[in-house]
Design brief:
The structure holds two protein chains of two kinds. By secondary structure, chain A is an alpha/beta fold. Chain A has helices at 3-11, 34-43, 110-121, and strands spanning 15-21, 24-29, 51-59, 72-80, 85-93, 99-101, 124-126. The longest helix of chain A has 12 residues, at 110-121. Chain B has one domain (24-137): Rossmann fold (3-Layer(aba) Sandwich), CATH 3.40.50.12280. Chain B has helices spanning 3-20, 33-41, 76-85, 97-101, 131-147, and strands at residues 25-29, 64-68, 91-95, 122-124. The longest helix of chain B is centred in the N-terminal third of the chain and has 18 residues, at 3-20. Classes of the chains: A alpha/beta, B alpha/beta. The A-B interface holds A 135-137, 140, 144, 149, 151-155, 157-161 and B 73-74, 76-78, 80-81, 84, 106-109, 111-112, 116-117.
């Protein structure tokens, strides 16, 4: 079943952009419709995306040709065990409004993945049950995978928890 | 030299000789250097010749802290606590270039040399160091132990 055609038929303008190459299917989704689209992808019998393979983000700050567009993209990789097909969903975010609704209610694995994206890119996940940093320590300042984070910035060493 | 200091220096020498041949290491292995550490610690290179053949996996029973592998900022407090738990006398060996200087990990996650956290006695550079370098470092540590004023 053509996944993209089905999504476009069902959600119309909420699917901002689509791309397909060699069976690699991508759709860019409007943020307001994200949770609806994700829930439909998981629960629809024909789609049946029961696994959230990965959740990550991209910083397009210095990307050639995209310097002026929305700075971040949050990327969801979905996989269906039953149907053996995959889908990549993207959400574009501006720097001063970098927040998306949390997908923890749909896939529990999103908990740590969203914490990692918050830690590394500073994207807020609204409704996340435990929005702490995942990899860096609490005293860390900034988000190290942002393209404007200086590669050799030194952070103060943390002492042992007393 | 008075009789008292003569006996003190001879006693220092004797204790230094004993200590340098009874090194109980604590291997703090965090990364790939650990494989090279294991290669050195196995029978082919036989560090038991230097009295360092028995690693102790409790800091309270160890004399020498071998910091083997990259130390991240999140790991730093753990390393500091392990060092604090060791009893005197104690020495620290930085094994591999990551522990010496941070190595090529000049980034947000890596401690730029463990001497920013704890004192270090011997640095063994290399990525990873060959067993020969490790044994060289071990012998330098032995010289240092034997030559220093002993506290007892």
């Amino acid at each position: 079943m053509p996944i993209l055609a089905e999504l476009q038929r069902r959600f119309g303008d909420a699917i901002v952009e689509t791309h397909e190459q060699h069976g690699d299917v991508t759709a860019v989704v409007a943020r307001d419709a994200l949770l609806t689209v994700l829930a439909h992808c998981r629960d629809d019998a024909a789609l049946a995306f029961d696994v959230l393979m990965d959740l990550t983000a991209v910083d397009y700050l210095k990307f050639p040709g995209r310097e002026d567009g929305p700075r971040f993209e949050v990327v969801y990789h979905l996989y269906s065990i039953a149907r053996n097909h995959r889908l990549r969903l993207k959400v574009r975010l501006d720097e001063d409004d970098a927040r998306v609704p949390s997908a923890v209610a749909l896939w529990p694995i999103a908990n740590w993945l969203e914490r990692e994206v918050w830690d590394m890119f500073g994207v807020r996940f609204e409704g996340h049950p435990d929005p702490r940093r995942l990899l860096m320590y609490e005293e860390f300042v900034g988000h190290p995978l942002r393209k404007d984070y200086p590669i050799n910035r030194r952070q103060p060493l943390i002492g042992p928890a007393s | 030299m008075g009789v008292g200091s003569f006996f003190t220096s001879k006693l220092d020498e004797a204790i230094g000789w004993a200590r340098k041949y009874s090194i109980f290491q604590y291997p703090f292995v965090t990364a790939c250097c650990g494989m090279e550490y294991m290669a050195t610690a196995c029978s082919h290179y036989d560090v038991d010749r230097f009295g360092a053949g028995l690693p102790r996996f409790s800091p309270r029973q160890a004399d020498v802290l071998f910091v083997v592998g990259t130390i991240s900022h999140k790991m730093a407090p753990v390393l500091k606590r392990i060092y604090d738990q060791m009893t005197e006398p104690k020495w620290v060996v930085a094994f591999g270039v990551c522990t010496c200087t941070g190595g090529f990990y000049d980034n947000y996650a890596t401690v730029q040399g463990i001497d920013t956290i704890i004192p270090v006695d011997v640095y063994i550079p290399g990525c990873p160091p060959r067993p020969e370098s490790v044994i060289d470092g071990l012998m330098k540590l032995q010289d240092k132990i034997a030559g220093q004023a002993q506290r007892y």
